[in-house]
């Protein structure tokens, strides 16, 4: 092994993963499990989702917080109004009508702005 490989852990910054799950219930809890797995191996993990989705997995979040693993949970504004969706329609299973699926997908693409704003303000030294 080269000395570079031997020194990998001591000469590099800690890894920081950003997880942004698809706004569908079947994606949320497995992504929290992935966050726990990564954090248990010494990496900082930021889990970004919307207020409604965070509320729906609050018990799972509480368990992750109790574990004292380095996981941040970040709320991003989901642009329901901008996309023509009813308030609170932040998850695929909350779409009240199949006619609104295109608007939901458009809202997902609009989530880019709040995510970019969060990343610009992110202090990577923490």
TrEMBL record:
Stored Pfam families: Glyco_transf_N
Sequence ranges assigned to domain Glycosyltransferase N-terminal in this UniProt record: 17-123
Source superkingdom: Eukaryota
InterPro entries documented for this protein: Glyco_transf_N
Alphabetical list of PANTHER family matching this protein: GLYCOSYLTRANSFERASE
Family note: Belongs to the UDP-glycosyltransferase family.
Protein name (database record): Glycosyltransferase N-terminal domain-containing protein
Organism whose genome encodes this protein: Dendrobium thyrsiflorum (Pinecone-like raceme dendrobium)
């Amino acid at each position: 092994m080269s000395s570079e490989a031997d020194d990998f852990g001591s000469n590099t910054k800690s890894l920081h993963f950003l997880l942004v799950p698809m706004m569908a219930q079947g994606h949320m809890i497995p992504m929290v499990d992935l966050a726990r797995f990564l954090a248990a191996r010494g990496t900082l993990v930021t889990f970004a989702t919307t207020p409604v989705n965070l509320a729906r997995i609050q018990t799972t979040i509480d368990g992750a917080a109790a574990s004292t693993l380095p996981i941040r949970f970040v709320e991003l504004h989901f642009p329901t109004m901008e996309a023509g969706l009813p308030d609170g329609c932040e998850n695929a299973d909350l779409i009240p009508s199949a006619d609104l699926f295109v608007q939901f997908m458009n809202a997902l693409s609009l989530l880019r702005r709040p995510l970019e704003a969060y990343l610009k303000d992110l202090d990577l030294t923490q």
